[in-house]
Design goal:
By secondary structure, the protein is mainly α. It has one domain (about 1-70). It contains 3 helices and no strands. The radius of gyration is 24 Å and the shape is elongated.
């Protein structure tokens, strides 16, 4: 299994080759593509943050409801 993980590591020369291929494929559109990817990643992170806030709010609401139920019981 370690051998298969080592197969997928990316060295310096492989990264350079990938950058050259990206430049050849996308050419002058590369800044536009990268900008779109950046906006997509930003929107994805914002969505994750919203979901996290919703979960925390629901958890806090449940905790406050549990604590108020415990106080009401003598």
């Amino acid at each position: 299994m370690i051998d298969t993980l080592m197969f997928f590591t990316l060295g310096t020369w492989e990264a350079i080759v990938l950058v050259v291929i990206a430049l050849l494929v996308f050419g002058s559109r590369l800044p536009e593509v990268m900008r779109s990817m950046g906006k997509g990643i930003t929107e994805f992170k914002k969505g994750l943050r919203d979901v996290d806030e919703n979960i925390r709010d629901a958890h806090d609401d449940a905790d406050s409801a549990d604590s108020s139920d415990k106080k009401a019981v003598p």
